[in-house]
Amino acid sequence: MKQIITLNREMKDDYHYNEAIKTLRTNIQFCGSGIRTIMLTSSLPDEGKSDITFAMASSLAQIGKKVVMIDADIRKSVLVSRYQLETEVYGLSQYLSGQKTLEEVLYDTNVENLSMVFAGPYSPNPAELLEEDLFGKMIETLKNEYDYVIIDTPPMANLIDGAIVARQCDGAVMVVESGCISYRLEQRVKSQLDKSGWRVPGGGGHILPRILGVVLNKVSMERSGYYSKYYGRYGKYGKYSKYGKYGKYGKYEKYEKANA
Fold this sequence. Notes:
This protein is an alpha/beta fold. The chain is built from ten helices and eight strands.
């Protein structure tokens, strides 16, 4: 019997944010029934990746999908403190290092249909742990029990962890903070994901790039007409199944303000 953990954090009471998350949820579903293991990543810390990951996982759970969220940021996880857990929890680093079983690190939560695997204690060698066969076996086991496996990964600008996780996923969503990340940096992260390869459902072990799309986060509603234009693009998120080639990714260049 799984342990039950209470997550002491309320969802954002923001109509536009919640509608955008619902759109993201709907269009993730339109990517196809074979897209069930999805990682969310970013280039740099503090782009809002973990919040978007939890919101998307919770939104899928709210429509009756059985969802497990994995915190794969073994280097610097914020989820335990962010959700004000009142009890000690075991996590991914302890499972991958052989200290705990999967059953001991898998928790049900007070969000109906949502389970969690927390990151666990800091590990000095997270990349090596994620490359262990245990990680792949865990993903396969969870896919047999859940409709969706949603993985929160570390930022990828300077870390290899996300690329390692990508090998076990059906696709990825990149979270980009509006006006803060350079186009060249995003292209570098995108290239890193492409090189890692993805599983093709039913493809006999073949791998192909499959980046599902980009979430433009922290958009200022005070910019005249900007949010409505952004939201209109977001409404076309279903086309992200074609976005894997990033043929139109260059359009994001106009949002970039930072230097590469």
